Every structure is written in C-alpha cells, then in structure tokens.
Amino acid sequence: MRKIYEPEHLMEGELLQSMLASEGIESHITGRHLLGAVGDLPAFGLLGLTVEDDQAERARLLITEYNAAFPLPGDEPDSYPDVLLC
C-alpha cells in the first residue's frame, strides 16, 4: 500500500475514496481513528489515502483531475431558499 494523498478532513477523504471506488480502485483512509486525539496530536498530517502500489499512479491522476475540475456553468440554482443575500 502506498499513501497517495493527505485529505484536509475526513469528509474529503471519504469523498475521494468513493470517487476512486467508482473507478475500480480500492483505497483506505489511514488515521481516521486518530482524529479524536487532535488536542494531543498535531492537527495536520493525520489522515492519508492509500492504494495498492500498482494503482498509485492512476489514483493520483484521478485525484489531480478531480481537484482541478470546475463546475459546469448553469449548474447553480437561480435562487437559494432560506439564504439571506447581503
């Protein structure tokens, strides 16, 4: 197994893990059980996304492409209910 990415938080790690799974790449999030000890441990570098060595390059490429993607124009709703615009 090889660590290919450090997610900022658990939700990002789980999102990327699901994206990789949809591409047929099995991944694991390391350090998720350490998050409860953030007061005693450093706050950064606890989480890691790992994949098998032979899939590391493809997984890195997919994550890079995912992070570089922009939403398509027109995907935003015309209004956001219950949101106060200032």
Automatic annotation (TrEMBL):
Q: Which domain of life is it from?
A: Bacteria
Domain called DUF2007: residue spans: 1-66
Which Pfam families did the record assign? DUF2007
The protein's matches in InterPro entries, at most eight in alphabetical order, are given as: DUF2007, N-reg_PII-like_a/b
Which sequence ranges form a coiled-coil region, renumbered to this chain?
A: none
What is the protein name for this chain? DUF2007 domain-containing protein
